[in-house]
Amino acid sequence: MVQVLKEKIDPIRQEIVQHPLYESLSSLSDLRRFAEVHVFAVWDFMSLLKSLQRNLTCIDNPWVPVGSANSRYLINEIVTGEESDIDPRGNRISHFELYLRAMNELGADSGPIRALIGQCQAGTSITDALNKTDLPDGVRDFCSFTFSLIQNAPVHVQAAVFTFGREDLIPDMFHELVTRLSERYPEETNTFRYYLERHIEVDGDHHSQLALEMVQELCGDDPKKWEEAAIACEQALRLRKGLWDVVVSSPEVA
């Protein structure tokens, strides 16, 4: 059934992988603008990840077994890698914090994402925080959809969007662009390049396989669950395209 889902979402997925965004990025300033938008996807990815951990494992006291041990293993393994990977010096760091460091090196503006997180830390609801922060509509719509899934969608739908609608959508050509820019701007792009390489090494292979196993276990042989998963993935991918449209429409991107 997983193949049916992949075939259903492939048209919109190809629109993202072949998006004109990638060809429009040619300078350090373009990369900064990309990072300023993409960081919101990196952050709410972490939020979706923690929702899956909350649903598939026990995080309360007293501890009781929840779900299958296999699902617990799969999600905990991904959480470990995303929340506590290593930086270029071997120090523990989350992928989100690593991305913020890369933005700082690039000279990208992390003010909006820090403001959004600051409001959440102060107790503002995510809906109000998104509305109060000055964000492009495409960014706000993307994050709003993710948090609507976290609050309302069954776990098999969340897992499917996590697996098929998220961070495996940056094609090889983007990595090649960063590699070329790193030759011209080594100090500014060092951490960003490391982030992408680490993403390809850890997320692109090991984590993607674990996530796929998780979806297969949660959906099982239930056609209704697979259909619900496919519909949500299509929605997520269309909103990801909208996120890329934000970057292309920016006056800073040639």
Question: Could you please describe the fold and organization of this structure?
Answer:
This protein has 254 residues and is mainly α. It is 76% helix and 2% strand. The chain contains 12 helices and 2 strands, in the order H-H-H-H-E-E-H-H-H-H-H-H-H-H. The protein has helices at residues 2-17, 21-24, 28-56, 69-83, 95-106, 111-121, 126-132, 137-152, 155-164, 172-184, 186-219, 223-249, and strands at 85-86, 92-93. A two-stranded antiparallel sheet has the order 1-2.
Overall mean confidence score, pLDDT: 90
How are helices and strands ordered from N to C?
Answer: HHHHEEHHHHHHHH
Overall geometry: globular
Structural class: mainly alpha
Total E-strand runs: 2
Helical proportion?
over 70%
**What are the segments in which pLDDT stays under 50 over at least 5 consecutive residues?**
none
End-to-end Cα distance: 42 Å
Q: How many H/I helices?
A: 12
Radius of gyration: 18 Å
Strand order, biggest sheet? 1-2
Oligomer classification: single chain
Percent strand:
under 5%
Quick gist of this model?
The protein has 254 residues and is an all-alpha fold. The chain has helices spanning 2-17, 21-24, 28-56, 69-83, 95-106, 111-121, 126-132, 137-152, 155-164, 172-184, 186-219, 223-249, and strands at 85-86, 92-93.
